[in-house]
């Protein structure tokens, strides 16, 4: 996930708002207790997500892939006063931990945390959404995009994480694994979709920012 020199990364983080004490605690506990802690959004990406929602002041956000709740807390920071964030994840093992942090953050009234398979849950969730954040299993990225696009209001946004996939998207001379191919298919489909406009930001592992035009 490291695409810029370590000293530049450190400088960027030093000149961005620091994560809160609660987020720092969640970051540490995730690394201590949960498998694959690199899945956590982390300091810089968390501040980017928070800044985006502060600019938008969204009423409704859908997050696909809660993990330990770090990104949900960051996204919820910029919600409108009466806004709500629905976040979906299938991992029951960290549910108690996640709900504990949502409660500690004072967000239990703003975050609707649902456990289950997102492909099954999304069709029954009513839009419109101002923002959708996709950060779940890569094989379903394009499926998630297709399921949620019509639920995003015109002018609303979809953000997808990990779209550079540790640089594997440009290592096409090597044998391509299924997750890398799924990301390549997603990126190409978004690029070719006339209903949206998009920009791929090389932040952390890559953020695809998509705006629905029609």
Structure description:
It is a single chain. With 214 residues, the protein is an alpha/beta fold. It has a single domain (6-212), classed as Rossmann fold, CATH 3.40.50.150. Helix content is 38%, strand content 21%. The protein is built from 8 helices and 7 strands; from the N terminus they run αααβαβαβαβαβαββ. Strands 3-2-1-4-5-7-6 form a 7-stranded mixed β-sheet, with helices on both faces. Helix 7 (141-148) links the parallel strand 4 (129-134) and strand 5. Helix 3 (42-56) packs parallel to helix 4. The longest helix has 15 residues, at 42-56. It is globular. It starts with 5 loop residues before the first helix and ends with a strand. The mean pLDDT is 95.
The portion of residues assigned to helices is: 25-40%
CATH architecture, by name, is 3-Layer(aba) Sandwich
- State the secondary-structure class: alpha/beta
Radius of gyration, CA atoms, in whole angstroms: 16 Å
User: Which range does the strand content fall in?
Assistant: 15-25%
Which CATH C-level class is it?
Answer: Alpha Beta
Q: Tell me the overall shape.
A: globular
Widest sheet, order of strands: 3-2-1-4-5-7-6
What value does the average pLDDT take?
A: 95
H/E series: HHHEHEHEHEHEHEE
CATH homologous superfamily, by name?
A: Vaccinia Virus protein VP39
Give the total of beta strands. 7
Amino-to-carboxy terminus distance:
33 Å
Give the biggest beta sheet.
7 strands, mixed
Total number of distinct structural domains: 1
CATH topology title: Rossmann fold
* DSSP helical segment count: 8
Low-confidence stretches: none
């Amino acid at each position: 996930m490291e695409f810029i020199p370590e000293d530049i990364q450190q400088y960027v983080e030093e000149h961005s708002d620091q994560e809160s004490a609660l987020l720092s605690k969640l970051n540490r506990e995730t690394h201590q207790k949960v498998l694959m802690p690199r899945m956590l959004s982390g300091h810089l990406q968390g501040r980017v997500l928070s800044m985006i929602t502060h600019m938008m002041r969204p009423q409704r956000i859908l997050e696909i892939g809660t993990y330990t709740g770090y990104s949900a807390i960051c996204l919820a920071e910029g919600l409108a006063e009466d806004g709500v964030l629905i976040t979906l994840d299938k991992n029951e093992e960290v549910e108690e931990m996640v709900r504990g942090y949502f409660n500690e953050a004072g967000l239990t009234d703003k975050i609707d945390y649902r456990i289950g398979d997102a492909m099954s849950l999304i069709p029954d969730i009513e839009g419109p959404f101002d923002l959708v954040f996709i950060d779940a299993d890569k094989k379903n990225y394009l499926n998630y995009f297709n399921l949620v696009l019509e639920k995003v209001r015109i002018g609303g946004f979809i953000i997808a994480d990990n779209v550079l996939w540790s640089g594997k998207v440009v290592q096409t001379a090597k044998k391509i694994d299924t997750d890398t191919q799924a990301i390549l298919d997603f990126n190409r489909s978004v690029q070719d979709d006339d209903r949206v406009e998009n920009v791929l930001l090389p932040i952390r592992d890559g953020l695809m920012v998509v705006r629905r035009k029609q």
